[in-house]
Amino acid sequence: MYASLKESGLGAGDWAVFPGGGGGTGIQGVQLACAMGIRPVVVDTGESRRSLSLSLGAEYFVDFMTEADPVKKVLQVTNGGAHGVFVSAVQAYPASLDYLGSRIGGVVMCVGLPPKGRYHIDADPTQLCLKNQSIRGTLSSSRKDIAATLDFAKRGKIHLEPVVVGVSKFNEAVQRLKKGQVAGYAACMSERRFSELPEFVHDGVIYNAQPPMTSQDYGRMIDGIVGKLENFRLDLEMLVVDDRCSTDLDGMVSARFRLSYDSPNKKLGQDRVVFYEHVFFRFQGGKIAEIWPLIAWPET
């Protein structure tokens, strides 16, 4: 989100609208915008997202479910239109240009990637020309952008307040995230209820291209790793779900986890060991059939 905010050209005092800003990506943008002096407006729905957005810097929250005309309300609070619209919720693309209103030089920044062939922006070239408005996309950040974002976090300008769920609620959490029913991020706490793994993991599950194993063997393998760690915690920081999973429960899910546990070397001044892991899951019939852990590195 930092790269999108930077490339938009918005400055202190400008209005930024975040459709879906109460979600994980959007709420990061709200906090960064606030730290940069930009005035955030969140368009989303639900009391939990309202509370989270306003507590983390949004000046206004427009509930698109209860507001008769969300666009009209946004134009009203921004005195004619936003200087920038940052779309992380792909369902908001069709209405994104409307939030610019009559704002000369307004820009729509495309952040979320919609499924192919869905959620287009219907742009009127005359409007873009006469109002000098534009539509831009951002896909990745440079190392400099990442360093700048981490600096904001180090200075306490970015906060994560995840919704915590147990591993047994993982599938439910995935569906809630897809439906926009989670405010901010979701954190998945390991309950170590390995006896319930057959409900979620196929017998014959393939882990990291190794020979198939039973769900019980997979549970014993995981327990052998985390069972030795004091106060082990697993936080789900990012989740990307194959669109097919919402209908037939077959498809791919990729996740970025933050894992931490009490350091065995506290005498060295390190209280917690923290590392990250990117994992791909292939679901078949609503259960995990294959797992690929890709990257893990320590936090420094």
Automatic annotation (TrEMBL):
* Co-factor(s): Zn(2+)
Pfam families referenced in this protein's UniProt entry, alphabetically = ADH_zinc_N (PF00107)
Q: Which residues form the Alcohol dehydrogenase-like C-terminal domain?
A: 24-154
Q: Which GO terms describe its cellular component?
A: cytoplasm
**Superkingdom per UniProt:** Eukaryota
Q: Which UniProt keywords apply?
A: Metal-binding, Oxidoreductase, Zinc
Q: Which InterPro entries match?
A: ADH-like_C (IPR013149), NAD(P)-bd_dom_sf (IPR036291), NTF2-like_dom_sf (IPR032710)
* Record protein name field: Alcohol dehydrogenase-like C-terminal domain-containing protein
What organism, scientifically named, is this protein from?
Answer: Fonsecaea nubica
